[in-house]
Amino acid sequence: MTRYNKIAATAVLAAVTGFNAFPQSADAATLLDLLRGGPARSKPMVNSVIDPQANGGLEMGDPEPLPKVTGPRYYTYKAEATRPIVIPAAAAVGAEIAPVTGARNFLSAVKVNATTDVAAAVEDYYKAGKPLIWVSEAGITDQARAAMAALAAADVAGLSPEDYAVALPSDASDPADPDKPAKELARFELALSAKLLTYINDTVRGRIDPNKLSGYHDFKRKSVNLKPVLNMARLSPDVGAYIRSRDPDNSQFVAMRDELARLRAEDDQAGVVVTIAPDTLLKPGQSNPELANILAAIKKQASDAIRMQHGAVLESYAGTPDYTPELVAVVEAFQQEKGLKPDGVIGRATIRALTGHSNAEKIEKLIVAMEEIRWLPADFGPRYVFINQPAYMAYYVNDGHEQLSMRVVVGSKSNQTYFFQDQIETVEFNPYWGVPKSIIVNEMLPKLRQDPSYLDRLGYEVSYNGRTVSSTAVDWNTTHSVDVRQPPGGDNALGELKILFPNAHAIYMHDTPSKSFFKRDMRALSHGCVRLAEPRVMAAAVMGTNVGEIAKQIASGQNRAVQVPQKIPVYVSYFTAWPNKNGVVEYFDDVYGRDAATMRAFKVTSDARSRS
Q: How far apart are CA 197 and CA 56, in angstroms?
């Protein structure tokens, strides 16, 4: 077949299943077409798929430059816009009005800015003629002092007290402005109301919008009903307790809050055992001066079991840099106890286990985690799957109790897994793999331009316009799209099954033939989906059945999608601090650098609030 008889295509896109090209396959997620300008110089070619000689062949242009598919990007965070709170001078005066007519008369004259939803709630309260809450003829009220004290303790909940601080009104007289004291009280009244509502917003839904951090964050931001808050605060016998009652109260948040208080109460740097150069990489048989620090750290942390088995080696070690077999055995025993791969190789994960996170690092991780948990539902539900990317773990919770956990592989730093929530709907057995466009364009297209038979030799199916074609029938130098998938089989990239929660990011959980990846400590290795170490066990859990029944489905060899009996929430999460099933907070490395982006957004938000 000549070049002019080939089907034009550059962007080879994936249809996992469900494309018209593959009507017999089970329903699953579909990837979008790559938009690169359409067919460019080629003529219409529908008939060419059926009959390469029809219409006299195609007129092809020169090869286009290799395209590149890139993932989402991180954004420069911008704080939420604010506007002035506007109380009309002729605001309605109701029967409940307290006798503070002086300050009330100047509510329309003072300038206080707030976000749109906060400003609207403040305006609704005072326009309705409700009593002033925070000031009286004698100055600020006890209610105001209690509210300010509660807001000043916002750091207990992982927030910044500075974001809710209000300057006290000045009582200094000014001959040039005899109304100044009343204006000061009016400003204080509106400002404290706005700050209290801002706190309620922040503690319920988070102080930043995660979707403005990066394209990898995908959340429908919570709405908070602010309208009744000021009246409830006014009527509350303990406004401080009312404010605290709005903080999250799920077990995970409470565990993190208590851990934050514990860390802050410590005088020393908790968790810092010894200093080891962070870039240290030491393999058996090598030499490195850091070995002395490594052995000192192990000696200080050694369990009774390690001391009993390797005590003589630890006591006789003289600080030499040579990493001998008997020292390797000590390190392997330590790695085994810490749940690391016991290979004797001392790298980043082993060093982290030896040195721990500093107290300051843990506090920062907790503050970020306490923000992130606010993006999720206040109640995860009695039954759900929770994936924590920095921990490289997935958990199945039933009746509020963790019933199983397993290692996972998540996206690499260049192919990051998203942070979002969804619902598990389907388990697909013996799946087809629709090759993601990023893999085809970035990794396979250069090979296809050199060897058009590449996909045929790999056993992949190529389809154009609903008809299966050979990959050699495609001209990979031009700009039409085709669909590519890998049939079920022993070397299928998705293995025996996949667990689907249809989403815009084409992310799901699945099996993998690359089992050795689960033995690694750092498992950010995939193209974005979540690979399960025990896929049959997870499938049985979400299907409400047993592993034997899952095995029967797989043994049939048929590509079949089965709906789960009941949709199950799944949280594809990113927490570098998270409590385990016993309520003990564990800490993980920030593999994608997202904590740093969140901390920068905190600063932008606080800076903007200090100017309002």
A: 71
